[in-house]
User: What shape does this take?
Amino acid sequence: MTPASALNDRLAASHPAASACLSALGRAIFYPKGITAQAEQARGSRINATLGQLTDGAGGAMGLPGMVRHLGDLPPERALLYAAQGGIPDLRAAWKARLSAAAGPAISLPLVTTGITHGLATVADLFAGPDTDVLLPEPGWGNYKHIFGTRRGARLLGYGCLGPSGFDVAPLRRALAALTRPTVLVLNYPSNPIGYVPDPVEADAIVAAVAEAPVPLVVVTDDAYQGMVWEPGRVQGSLFARLCRLDPARVLPVKVDGATKELFFFGGRVGFVTFGCGGSAAEVLEDKAMGLLRATTSSGPAFSQALVLEALANPALDEEREVLHTVLRGRYQALRASLDQAGITPWPYNGAFFVFVPVKGDAEALRLRLLDQGVGVIAFADAGAIRLSYASIKAELLPELVSVLARNL
Assistant: This one.
């Protein structure tokens, strides 16, 4: 029996939904017991002749002084040497502790990816292929189509729970009811490009629709903007915790998140993939995901992971995040006030970084007109709308943005 087939048998016995949804690549992949696995076993050996990285012979890094002097208090070993496969163990444990507070202990140990996009691509490798349907939000982040469609060849189907009049779970329920084979469903709240966060009733309706699906599902919660909620009465955390309570014979939740927005570490490229299962199923899925990581980026940047771990260990982390949330909330409020004053009605929004504004005529032509006037926006031509992000604009400049927009609508 091959290593992959042994893993597949274990997964079939422990998590039927995950087993049913594996792609051909997902079925074939495993973490090889090669160089990196053997090197992990040799950590702490008195004489370690495994990895090809330069040390002082006692585990200390021998880096270029021109780099080392910029590390500050961070020991060179934590920045210059390889991180463990799957991520720094203490970082994985710390991130799991954050998630377990809401989702409970029956989740996998998170795997570190090189950003959230890499996390989504890893999930796509495991569960998407030419014989797979993938349900994507419409309008949604354009890169989903590349990740699941162009790259993996899956059949892409759209659902639109959000529109100018607000939230409606019926399109998602209809899309799920029409499925005939194992499917990947992507959920993204707070959403990009709309900036919408559901309330608890809406969140429960989404989970109920998932529970009624006629086929096994992998439900991916893209939680890039988790916690960025600017209005009361909205879900503050991920739908992942709710989804983890569903029947493992029907649903595998997978959480993709990261330090990119949660910790405002945009250039750090530290993401996480966490499976909503424990025990043998978690071990199998971690092994397979580790195999994919080994075959693509291998180990992620140690320096970035070390900084994230330092942030998580900081007792003042929540206070520091709230300072930046206050800045974003102020920009959100300034933009909302300016849009209201100008009589511009966007789609409903209450979180993340974004406002989705419907336009008459050609959205791309409008984008180019605005660009000629020194204002950059993103056009969503298929939806007849433009997306505004207030994340990088001082509050005092937002009325000018709206004024230029109003003159061109």
Notes: The longest helix spans residues 317-342. The chain has a mean pLDDT of 95. Residues 50 and 242 are 44 Å apart (CA to CA). DSSP finds 18 helices and twelve strands in the chain.
